[in-house]
Specification:
Blueprint: E1 4-5, E2 10-26, E3 37-52, E4 56-68, E5 80-94, E6 99-108, E7 130-139, E8 142-153, E9 162-180, E10 183-201, E11 204-221, E12 224-237, E13 240-254, E14 262-270, E15 280-281, E16 303-312, E17 318-329, E18 336-337, E19 343-345, E20 354-366, E21 371-382, H1 384-388, E22 395-405
Parallel strand pairs: 13-15
Antiparallel strand pairs: 1-2, 2-3, 2-22, 3-4, 4-5, 5-6, 6-7, 7-8, 8-9, 9-10, 10-11, 11-12, 12-13, 13-14, 14-16, 16-17, 17-20, 18-19, 20-21, 21-22
């Protein structure tokens, strides 16, 4: 199935994924609105990858994300009966002995860097794709691209995800791999221009034209891994100037031991609006970012988090993870947002910065090269700000899953 010859220079590859997940969600919105329940999720993907000679490729994928037993309103990341996940054509050619040029046009999943601006949303039940064009160039230690396109109008019903012309983007990326002292490192810069109608924040709703400038440095060497990224945003939101930012820094150290303990620390800060009446919009917008947690309860907008992590590897097939993060509002004059970007609590509902303390536990076991099973638990102890809003229930989320992919 991975190599089906059609002619001497043409072959087809077939692949697919089936994931089953049982979830329990209690106070997913910290006590406000419909939020409790247990459900079974089923995600199916099937794809065909056609290679014509050395220069042409066609890729087509169907996707489906189903739910059973969940009695609260479903979202587009929870369920999609069936739709085209990807359908693109790619032309490519060599660029010397150590390079290539690729032009990819059509519906496609996009994941770049650490997935903080472009991510496929793999943790949730329905993955995300965009209608876009990408011209990608790689040469030696350099690689980059120019890209542009649209988000989709995602729906729950079959075969009706169409292009969202109210949300467009274009930009460029450039990266270089290097040896910085003992570290094998990557330096990556990116600029994205996004245009959105109906961009909603705590301060209101307006048309937004925003530039996002990102610089990321990451590396590993010996026992140390690190990843640092800073992002600045400017533009216009309605009649206000956009001045927003985001910064993250992660580092870990691998200790000696039978279970290969790796101790890490994580810091993230997404800006929030400082004053709704000052003519500036300071709330950070994270484009198509990977959710902060597997269940995606909070967005990076106006969120600061920090805390330790521990990863253990008892065997080559088993990985255990634990994290603890303090969650704060970056600005007291902005609210907190769901992972989807929808406002969860308004700024005026409380004065404290303290949102809560999040503890996560995870385990993943590789049964075979094709089958992975695991579990994930997320508990958020509600902090002073949530208690001030009058809705202060603790969030509890747990899941067990099995994924078959070939």
């Amino acid at each position: 199935m991975k190599y089906i010859p059609i002619t001497d220079s043409t072959f087809l590859t077939l692949g697919g994924e089936a994931r089953t997940r049982f979830e329990t969600r209690n106070d997913q919105r910290f006590g406000r609105g419909p939020q409790d329940g247990a459900d079974l999720e089923f995600r199916f993907r099937a794809w065909a990858d056609l290679h014509v000679g050395d220069h042409l490729r066609g890729f087509f994928e169907l996707k489906s994300g189903l739910q059973q037993g969940y009695d609260v309103p479903q979202t587009v990341s929870d369920r999609k009966d069936i739709d085209v996940g990807q359908a693109f054509v790619e032309a490519r050619t060599a660029l010397g002995d150590d390079g290539s040029i690729k032009l990819r046009v059509g519906r496609q999943e996009i994941g770049i860097g650490a997935f903080r601006l472009f991510d496929m949303r793999d943790g949730l039940n329905v993955r995300r794709s965009l209608d876009a064009a990408r011209l990608m160039v790689a040469k030696g230690v350099w690689n980059g691209e120019v890209l542009g396109g649209y988000a989709q109008n995602e729906t729950l019903t079959p075969f009706d995800n169409d292009t969202n012309e109210d949300f467009s983007f274009y930009g460029a990326r450039l990266a270089r791999t290097a040896q910085l002292g003992p570290f094998a490192s990557t330096i990556e810069g990116m600029w994205i221009r996004s245009d959105r109608k109906g961009a909603a924040y705590d301060a209101g709703t307006a048309t937004e034209r925003r530039n996002t400038f990102s610089l990321r440095v990451n590396g590993h060497g010996g026992r140390v891994d690190y990843d640092v990224e800073g992002t600045l945003q400017n533009g216009r939101w309605g009649n206000q100037q956009v001045r927003a930012d985001y910064v993250t820094a992660n580092a870990s150290y691998l200790f000696d031991g039978a279970w290969k303990p790796k101790l890490g620390v994580r810091f993230e800060r997404g800006s929030g609006d400082r004053n709704p009446a000052d003519g500036r919009m300071n709330t950070y917008f994270s484009l198509f970012a990977r959710p902060v947690t597997l269940n995606g309860e909070l967005n990076r907008s106006n969120l600061t988090l920090f805390g330790p992590s521990l990863t253990l590897t008892p065997t080559k097939k088993l990985t255990l993870d634990a994290t603890v993060n303090d969650l704060l509002r970056t600005s007291r004059n902005d609210g907190i947002y769901l992972g989807s970007g929808v406002l969860l609590r308004a700024a005026t509902e409380g004065t404290s910065r303290q949102v809560g303390v999040r503890t996560t536990l995870g385990a993943r076991y590789l049964l075979s090269p094709f089958v992975t099973v695991g579990t994930y638990i997320n508990h958020v102890e509600a902090g002073r700000y949530l208690k001030q809003t009058g809705d202060s229930d603790n969030l509890n989320y747990a899941t067990v899953f099995a994924t078959f992919r070939f």
